[in-house]
């Protein structure tokens, strides 16, 4: 693929053709409305942002122990007028005034991790819950929040009510992940060096503790086909666990510093991990092979005399169609990467970014920063090639080894296993 | 599509709105030309100099592709429509679903057609 810098259009000869690639435009920025009295000791960072899988809600931990839940899409007042005119970027800031459907969850302590459960459970569950009124009704969209002292609180999104309190972790619950299948199994990752598996169908019973990490576990992610769990920690290694047996499958070595973020591609065929060592590594999770490294270096090295590369990674995530990555780094840049290229295709300035996530239907990236703000950016609109769509469909149920066993030409295998694009 | 009103010999020329895709076992599919041009291969076949030697310029013969999987051809046409609909449009692009059972054969066709 070639990048034509003058017109900023990507010509696609490969997998997907971006309709147009321009620098991400800031669509909206939300700032928390501060209560009159707040505790200066509790931090104000937005450690996590999340969209519900169906795209109807957005949640962010806006610091000071508060999680804000807002329906998506955002109301008119938040979107700058004339957004369709892509030639100019505009910022529209607004205090969190609150619409009737917004929910404010007071978690009582710093919130580190957030995760939505898929929508909703089968109807039989509702029937069961009606006959067992003392059991919290989890047949609805829920949000799990990971807290400073190791607790996990489960909230009902529609009403903002607290449903469950899960105890077990001894330290900060840094990240959470629900199984995408809707089975209401929750995985949590903690600074107590463990991951824990919880079954929300059984009052949030803790069904397994995964030990093995030597330092803080920063993140966890479940593959979309629900077969694998990835966890990454301070000791530079990335672990892959089986979600069927809850045992360790393999360790991925390669990062030079703490690994703080991980994400699977939508077809579960790729895993990306981001580290303080300024790199994002793309892996084949089935074989453990490193496919490529994305280096986050100074944008214009000639202009900068300093030897210091302050580009520790904070967050990495896949776009919903599986062709782009967004990364947030300490060098004050949000970067968009096309999978097959070695340099980013677009940048946007972002100070003190901590986390990022794509809107599930594409087109928007949400980021959170140290001051408790969230920003929404335009993401490249992608019309995937039919080749890539077929690859994605196949890889959603075929492992790398199964692909290699198919009676197809070698070039096709290389394409299907993402060795070529 | 309004183009120049040129004609070439007895062919319809670039004005033709539809093209006929003829597969190796004789099955014919008539598709709007604009959509068929989604495929780089079809585009090349329709615009190359060899075309004017054919009796009708708006036909494309695929000697390699059999039609015994009709759903595959249907999916191809649907993809062409999807691509034309959402290229140069500012609306949100929905996902194009590919049924797992035809995905492999469709991939082969997509690879051949470069789309």
How would you characterize the overall build of this protein?
Chain A is mainly β and 421 residues long. Chain A has a domain at 40-74 and 100-119 and 138-298 and 307-384: Methylamine Dehydrogenase, Chain H (7 Propeller), CATH 2.130.10.10. Chain A is 7% helix and 40% strand. Chain A has four helices and 33 strands. Chain A has helices at 123-131, 386-395, 400-404, 410-416, and strands at residues 2-4, 9-11, 16-20, 26-31, 49-51, 57-61, 66-71, 93-95, 103-106, 111-116, 142-147, 152-156, 162-166, 173-178, 185-190, 195-199, 205-210, 217-222, 228-233, 238-242, 248-252, 259-264, 271-275, 279-283, 290-295, 313-318, 324-329, 333-338, 346-349, 353-358, 364-369, 374-378, 381-384. In chain A, the strands form nine sheets. A five-stranded mixed β-sheet of chain A has the order 8-4-32-31-30, with no helix packed on it. Chain A has a four-stranded antiparallel β-sheet with strand order 5-6-7-9, with no helix packed on it. A four-stranded antiparallel β-sheet of chain A has the order 10-11-12-13, with no helix packed on it. Chain B has one domain (18-113): Potassium Channel Kv1.1, Chain A, CATH 3.30.710. Chain B has four helices and three strands, in the order ββααβαα. Chain B has a three-stranded mixed β-sheet with strand order 2-1-3. In chain B, α3 packs across α4 (100-113). The chains are: A mainly beta (421), B alpha+beta (115).
Topology:
The complex is a heterodimer of chains A (421) and B (115).
Chain A: E1 2-4, E2 9-11, E3 16-20, E4 26-31, E5 49-51, E6 57-61, E7 66-71, E8 93-95, E9 103-106, E10 111-116, H1 123-131, E11 142-147, E12 152-156, E13 162-166, E14 173-178, E15 185-190, E16 195-199, E17 205-210, E18 217-222, E19 228-233, E20 238-242, E21 248-252, E22 259-264, E23 271-275, E24 279-283, E25 290-295, E26 313-318, E27 324-329, E28 333-338, E29 346-349, E30 353-358, E31 364-369, E32 374-378, E33 381-384, H2 386-395, H3 400-404, H4 410-416
Parallel strand pairs in A: 4-8
Antiparallel strand pairs in A: 1-2, 3-33, 4-32, 5-6, 6-7, 7-9, 10-11, 11-12, 12-13, 14-15, 15-16, 16-17, 18-19, 19-20, 20-21, 22-23, 23-24, 24-25, 26-27, 27-28, 28-29, 30-31, 31-32
Chain B: E1 18-23, E2 28-32, H1 33-36, H2 40-47, E3 59-62, H3 70-86, H4 100-113
Parallel strand pairs in B: 1-3
Antiparallel strand pairs in B: 1-2
Helix pairs in contact in B: 3-4
């Amino acid at each position: 693929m070639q990048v034509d810098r003058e017109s900023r259009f990507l010509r696609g000869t490969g997998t997907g053709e971006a309709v147009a690639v321009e620098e991400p435009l800031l669509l909206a920025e939300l700032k928390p409305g501060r209560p009159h009295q707040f505790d200066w000791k509790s931090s104000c960072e937005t450690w996590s942002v999340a969209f519900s899988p169906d795209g109807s809600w957005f949640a962010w931990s806006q610091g000071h122990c508060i999680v804000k839940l807002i329906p998506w899409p955002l109301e008119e007042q938040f979107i700058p007028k004339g957004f369709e005119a892509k030639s100019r970027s505009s910022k529209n800031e607004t205090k969190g005034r609150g619409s009737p459907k917004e929910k404010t969850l007071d978690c009582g302590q710093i919130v580190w991790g957030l995760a939505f459960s898929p929508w909703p459970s089968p109807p039989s569950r509702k029937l069961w819950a009606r006959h067992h009124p003392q059991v919290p009704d989890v047949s609805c969209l829920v949000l799990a929040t990971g807290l400073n002292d190791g607790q996990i609180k489960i909230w009902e999104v529609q009403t903002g009510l607290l449903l469950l309190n899960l105890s077990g972790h001894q330290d900060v619950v840094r990240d959470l992940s629900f199984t995408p299948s809707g089975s209401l199994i929750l995985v949590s990752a903690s600074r107590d060096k463990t991951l824990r598996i919880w079954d929300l169908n059984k009052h949030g019973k803790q069904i397994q503790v995964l030990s093995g990490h030597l330092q803080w576990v920063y993140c966890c992610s479940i593959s979309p086909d629900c077969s694998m769990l990835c966890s990454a920690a301070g000791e530079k290694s990335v672990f892959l666990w089986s979600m069927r047996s809850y045992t360790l499958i393999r360790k991925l070595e390669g990062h030079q510093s703490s690994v703080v973020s991980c994400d699977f591609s939508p077809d579960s065929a790729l895993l990306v991990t981001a580290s303080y060592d300024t790199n994002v590594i793309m892996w084949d999770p089935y074989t453990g092979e490193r496919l490529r490294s994305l280096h986050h270096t100074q944008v214009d090295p000639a202009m900068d005399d300093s030897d210091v590369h302050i580009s520790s990674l904070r967050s990495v995530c896949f776009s919903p169609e599986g062709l782009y990555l967004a990364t947030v780094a300490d060098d004050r840049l949000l970067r968009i990467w096309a999978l097959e290229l070695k340099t980013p295709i677009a940048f946007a300035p972002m100070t003190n970014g901590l986390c990022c996530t794509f809107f599930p239907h594409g087109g928007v990236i949400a980021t959170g920063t140290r001051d408790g703000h969230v920003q929404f950016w335009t993401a490249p609109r992608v019309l995937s090639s039919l080749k890539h769509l077929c690859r994605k469909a196949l890889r959603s149920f075929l492992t790398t080894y199964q692909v290699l066993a198919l009676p197809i030409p070698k070039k096709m295998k290389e394409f299907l296993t993402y060795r070529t694009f | 599509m309004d183009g120049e009103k040129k004609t070439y010999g007895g062919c319809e020329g670039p004005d033709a709105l539809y093209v006929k895709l003829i597969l190796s076992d004789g099955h014919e599919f008539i598709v709007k030309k604009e959509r068929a041009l989604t495929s780089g291969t079809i585009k090349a076949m329709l615009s190359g100099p060899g075309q004017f030697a054919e009796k009708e310029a708006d036909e494309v013969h695929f000697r390699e592709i059999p039609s015994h999987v009709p759903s595959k051809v249907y999916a191809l046409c649907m993809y062409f429509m999807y691509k034309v609909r959402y290229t140069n449009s500012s609306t949100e692009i929905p996902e194009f679903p590919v049924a797992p059972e035809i995905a492999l054969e469709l991939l082969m066709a997509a690879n051949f057609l470069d789309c």
